[in-house]
Every structure is written in C-alpha cells, then in structure tokens.
Amino acid sequence: MEMKDKVLSSGHYLFDNKPLIVKPWTRDLEMTKEDVKFVPAWVQIHKLPLKFWGKGLPKIASLLGKFIKCDVATEERTRLGYARVMVELVVDQELPAEIAFKDEKGSVIRVDVEYEWRPVKCKKCQGMGHEMEHYMKGIRENVVKKPVKQFIHMKIEALVSRSVFYLTMIYAFNGIQDRTPLWDHLRRFAGQVDGPWAMAGDFNCVLSTTERVGGNTPNAEIEPFRNCVADCAWSDRFPELYANFLPEGMLDHTPCLISSSTQVQKTRNFKYYNMWGASKDFLPIIKRCWSIVAMRKVVELQKMNGKDPSNVGLISEEFEASKTLRDLSVARDSFLA
Fold first, then answer.
1. Domain end position, chosen among 48, 80, 115
2. pLDDT tens-digit profile of 267-308?
3. Domain with 46 in it
4. Strand order across the beta sheet in which 197-202 lies
C-alpha cells in the first residue's frame, strides 16, 4: 500500500513525451476510456530573455495552461537555447505558436513556443490520439468486441480496401486450471472465424521446455497450450505467418512484428571446421561468449530475487544479465542463420 500511494502521489508520468494516466486498481475496475479534459505536456519557450527565467517563468507559462514545473536544465540554466516547462493543457484548446507579454517597462515581448507533444482529439469518435481526417485516409478502425477475462477479440477493417482480419490479445492467468476457460474459448472462436486471425500477448505458458529460461516446466502445464494450438489447426491454417522479435531498446519488453510470407524461411546448415577445436582457446571462448555462463547467471539472480523481491540492486542485476543473455542469443542466431 505504501508503494502504491507513493506511485500515485509522485506527480505526472510521461512515456515518449505522452501523458500516462495512472489510477488505483480495484477489483471492480472498469477498463473503459475516460473523458480526458486536461493533459500535461512539455513545452519549449524559445527566445525568452534570461531575466524572465526566474520567478516570472510560471506566470509566462500560464499563458499556455496551468504551470506544473520546469526541468532541471532550465532551473540551473545549463541549457540556454530555450526554457522547458511542463504545463497542463486543455485538450480542445488552440495551441499558439507564439505568446506575448509585457515587461516591467510596458514593452511587448514575443516568444516562440514549441510543443514536444500535442493532445489530439477526434471530432468524430471523441477518441484521443487521432484526428477525424484519418478516417478518410484509410486508417484501420478497430471494432472491439465485449472484453472478457484473459483476452479481447478485435475485428479490424481497412476503410478504403475493406480488407478484414481478426486479432486476439491475450493476457492469460498464472494458474494452469485458471487458463482452461481461455483455451476452450479459443477453440470455439477458431470454428467461427472466417478470415485471417492473429493471436498475440502473454500466454503465461510455453509450447516447449526450451522456451523458458530458468526453472523446469512440467508437461502438465505445456500440454493444454499445445492441444489448444493443435485443435485450432493454427499451423495448418496460417503456415505463412512468422514472428520477428525486435530489439527492446529502453523497455523491458520486446516488440513483436508479425509478418506473412509465401516464401519458406530457409536456414543454412551450420559448418564446423576441425581447426577450431585444435585451438586451446576454442572452448573457453565459446563458454564465455555464448549462453552457458550468461544463462547460469540469470537463473542464479532469478532465484536470489525470488528470496528477496524488494532488493532493487538484484532487480537491476537481473535486468542487465537478461539483456546480456538476449544479446548473446541474437549473436548466436545470427551466426547460425
């Protein structure tokens, strides 16, 4: 509870300069969009004389919206190209490219304004993040069916080409028995879908023991997932689909690009040269550079984190170790490809 209160009271959160709305979770939480009227945004004020970077800055920023704060570089004046402030903007307001105010002598000062992110609201559906004009450009429209536990089914239609496909987003429960209704529903939906269909998300399960790093996965946990995939005839119906996992960048999750291709993905045979084994450094280099050492470290840190889950240092070490293991796996796959 203390950590939750700290998160909720720590101010505004932004991701990719876009506001992230945080609210407390409850058992009866409704996953519906709220009518957002105000959003925080970072604004750059250019050509602002330095004498206004002090106590007068909040008043100047209030010409755009409610002043929240300025960044450290502005406070300490280590970046003089522009003053950077966070203000609370009204979603529907016109955002001026220039603001003007009078100084102590009555002279009019004009400064340029640059928004690092602009709130966009559609006049047609009142949704955030897109404009009404996008509907005329063939942007795909998501028709979301009634959400239920563990998954959401979507029918996605391109408004110009009228092509349709289905997408099921999964967030499965942790328990084996708790996931049984999910597998049953996917089987039923497989018999009803009449077009291309993709599933993505977190199944909280694997199809093979080799897919999980650390710990053993019993067959009793794997078989229901395997049977579901087989019953849905997934491989038979969509053999041309494949997933490409992209670099995670600054995130702790990996983006997944689902593509279709009529070409069979071929892998070249691995060739081993006997001269490699003649070198005394061969095995030490392999062990050091590829997954054996890295995987052991990840498993060890996972066990330590399980015993002390609040240890920030261990969490950071596990993150770095997992990243190293992923990098080595990418290098290995690239070599074998």
1. 115
2. 556 677 788 878 888 777 776 666 566 777 877 887 887 788
3. 2-115
4. 141-144, 151-157, 164-171, 197-202
